[in-house]
Write a structure and sequence with these properties.
Layout lengths: L10 H9 L19 E4 L3 H14 L3 E4 L3 H20 L5 H9 L1 E4 L10 E4 L5 H14 L5 E4 L6 H5 L8 E3 L6 H4 L1
Parallel strand pairs: 1-2, 1-4, 2-3, 4-5, 5-6
Helix pairs in contact: 1-2, 2-3
């Protein structure tokens, strides 16, 4: 089994580290010097869009959310709108900042649009076969430098990474739900 992270951390910390370009201090040598400019999230549910929102807001990076179901994308996008509106009402964020954050989040139904991503986080249901299928597809279309992360809480990272030709670039990141509150 490979161990990539030097210590436990949450995505709020990741966002802050990416923003400050100190992200590499959390990772092992294999992926240490990888600069992250754009992030992809697979899965447009509450978890996927929560990850996208935290990334767009804290790390201030462009995020593309992928789901095969356009209705799920609409539902997830509405979820983000609702969270941002709550933060505006509670004076945690300005409307301009919310608009800026939302503008960093785009969506797609085509996995081919993930070919240029630097960092991809899979946030789909806990189905090992489905996760392996997605990671195998990502392995075919992404560069050798792309970091692939799974949001699994119970499936072996090694088992998921085995679906790729670059298992040293596969990491596990477990997010607590709801991500915007827990991150």
């Amino acid at each position: 089994m490979n161990y990539f992270c030097k210590r436990n951390f949450n995505f709020g910390q990741v966002g802050r580290y990416v923003k400050n370009r100190k992200f590499s201090s959390l990772l092992s040598k294999e992926i240490k010097d990888h600069e992250i400019k754009q992030i992809g999230v697979i899965g447009a549910g509450q978890m996927g869009f929560g990850i996208a929102l935290v990334t767009a807001h804290i790390a201030q990076l462009p995020v593309k959310v992928l789901d095969s179901n356009p209705k799920q994308i609409e539902k997830g996008s509405s979820f983000v709108d609702g969270l941002l509106e709550k933060d505006i009402v509670k004076n945690r964020i300005t409307r301009d900042k919310a608009t800026e954050t939302k503008s960093r989040i785009t969506t797609t139904t085509s996995i081919s649009e993930f070919s240029t991503m630097d960092f991809i986080i899979e946030a789909i249901p806990e189905d090992v076969d489905l996760k392996r299928e997605i990671f195998a597809k990502l392995d075919q279309i992404t560069s050798d430098d792309t970091i692939l992360a799974t949001n699994t809480s119970s499936i072996s990272i090694t088992k998921i990474a085995a679906a790729t030709k670059k298992p040293a670039k596969v990491i596990g990141m477990h997010f607590l739900n709801p991500v915007p509150i827990m991150g």
